């Protein structure tokens, strides 16, 4: 199988950008990634562009250049970024292209994420009565997990505080004001046990990645980062409700468990060999649950990990070193590629004040998207 390297990454900062179009943000992120790779758009032979809000993301070629290459639109919930990365890598592995790009952008309205239940074949009342409100879903899921595994709400506050603290030293982060765990616990409750600052918020932004055949990487950069594995898995049981897909149901694991195991097997690595990770933190409870689902610890061990600072930038497994979704917000199509942007900077030693010490050589990204898809990618120097 052809090896794939990441040779350039680019980011349009996440936040609120007035009337600026999502497509333009995506084009700026793509140009930044190309500049990072020392490449031209004319060298790109295929691209996968992810967005929730933009129905024709292939229109990005209007800003990048009408070169006639295949450009495919991608949407897979919050797993969109990982899906577009995987598809771009597969295009290289299967000989469709020597150089490919994954691009993501979105421009979400203010307020909690909601979704159209009819997309999933559910009755309209399901959403109208609040059953599909994401804050409700994640709050109830966290309540059950904390109860089942003896984890405290203080652990959630410490996760949120860590991510906001990391965001405060990340120049492109949206939320850059650190808060203490006590302040976070004292904030208004949105859905118990999650308070206002334990959630991410929808926002706007874009990110992009340039990939190529590994044997061509030296033409673009002296510090390539290799994509060791990129895996997508969907749920095996359950409808979209509080019991599924992020909780085991009828013996079926979360899709994150399946994706993580497959990614580690493909990469030939184990969880203890990962030096820095980006885990989906739509809320603090999600990051806590995903620590176990991705195999880094056992259910219930998170409290001790957090108390010991294991997931801090100085810890044994720094998690969400750029503040994750809690500090950056989530434009769905772009958030997974923002994770890749951060991991590549970390592995290349370019992360500035948030740089993980000890010359990290392996990195991990994880996404979870409703109603039950998970994407995991593993990188190495």
UniProtKB/TrEMBL annotation:
<protein>
    <submittedName>
        <fullName>Thiolase family protein</fullName>
    </submittedName>
</protein>
<feature type="domain" description="Thiolase C-terminal">
    <location>
        <begin position="253"/>
        <end position="377"/>
    </location>
</feature>
<dbReference type="Pfam" id="PF00108">
    <property type="entry name" value="Thiolase_N"/>
</dbReference>
<dbReference type="InterPro" id="IPR002155">
    <property type="entry name" value="Thiolase"/>
</dbReference>
<dbReference type="Pfam" id="PF22691">
    <property type="entry name" value="Thiolase_C_1"/>
</dbReference>
<dbReference type="InterPro" id="IPR016039">
    <property type="entry name" value="Thiolase-like"/>
</dbReference>
<dbReference type="GO" id="GO:0016747">
    <property type="term" value="F:acyltransferase activity, transferring groups other than amino-acyl groups"/>
</dbReference>
<dbReference type="InterPro" id="IPR055140">
    <property type="entry name" value="Thiolase_C_2"/>
</dbReference>
<dbReference type="InterPro" id="IPR020616">
    <property type="entry name" value="Thiolase_N"/>
</dbReference>
<feature type="domain" description="Thiolase N-terminal">
    <location>
        <begin position="4"/>
        <end position="169"/>
    </location>
</feature>
């Amino acid at each position: 199988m052809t090896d794939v390297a990441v040779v350039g990454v680019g980011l349009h900062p996440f936040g609120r950008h007035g009337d600026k179009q999502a497509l333009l943000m995506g084009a700026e992120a793509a140009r930044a990634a190309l500049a990072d790779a020392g490449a031209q758009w004319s060298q790109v032979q295929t691209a996968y562009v992810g967005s929730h809000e933009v129905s024709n993301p292939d229109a990005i070629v209007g800003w990048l250049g009408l070169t006639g290459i295949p450009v495919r639109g991608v949407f897979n919930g919050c797993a969109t970024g990982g899906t577009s990365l995987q598809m771009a890598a597969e295009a290289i592995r299967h000989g469709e292209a020597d150089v490919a790009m994954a691009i993501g952008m979105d421009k979400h309205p203010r307020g909690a994420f909601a979704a159209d239940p009819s997309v999933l074949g559910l009755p309209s009342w399901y959403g109208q009565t609040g059953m599909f409100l994401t804050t409700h879903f994640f709050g109830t899921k966290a309540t059950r997990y904390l109860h089942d595994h003896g984890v405290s709400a203080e652990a959630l506050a410490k996760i949120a505080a860590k991510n906001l603290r990391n965001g405060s030293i990340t120049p492109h982060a949206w939320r850059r004001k650190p808060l203490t765990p006590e302040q976070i616990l004292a904030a208004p409750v949105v859905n118990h046990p999650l308070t206002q600052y334990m959630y991410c918020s929808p926002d706007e932004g874009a990110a992009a990645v340039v990939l190529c055949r590994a044997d061509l990487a030296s033409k673009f950069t002296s510090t390539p980062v290799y994509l060791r594995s990129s895996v997508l898995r969907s749920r095996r049981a359950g409808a979209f409700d509080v019991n599924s897909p992020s909780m085991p149901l009828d013996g079926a694991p979360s899709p994150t468990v399946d994706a993580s195991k497959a990614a580690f097997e493909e990469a030939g690595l184990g969880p203890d060999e990962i030096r820095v990770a980006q885990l989906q933190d739509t809320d603090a409870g999600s990051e806590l649950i995903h620590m176990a689902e991705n195999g880094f610890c056992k259910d219930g061990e998170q409290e001790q990990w957090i108390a010991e600072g294991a997931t801090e930038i100085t810890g044994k497994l720094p998690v969400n070193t750029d503040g994750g979704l809690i500090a950056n917000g989530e434009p769905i199509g772009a958030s997974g590629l923002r994770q890749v942007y951060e991991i590549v900077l970390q592995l290349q030693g370019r992360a500035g004040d948030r740089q993980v010490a000890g010359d990290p050589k392996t990195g991990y990204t994880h996404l979870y998207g409703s109603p039950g898809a998970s994407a995991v990618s593993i990188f190495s120097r």
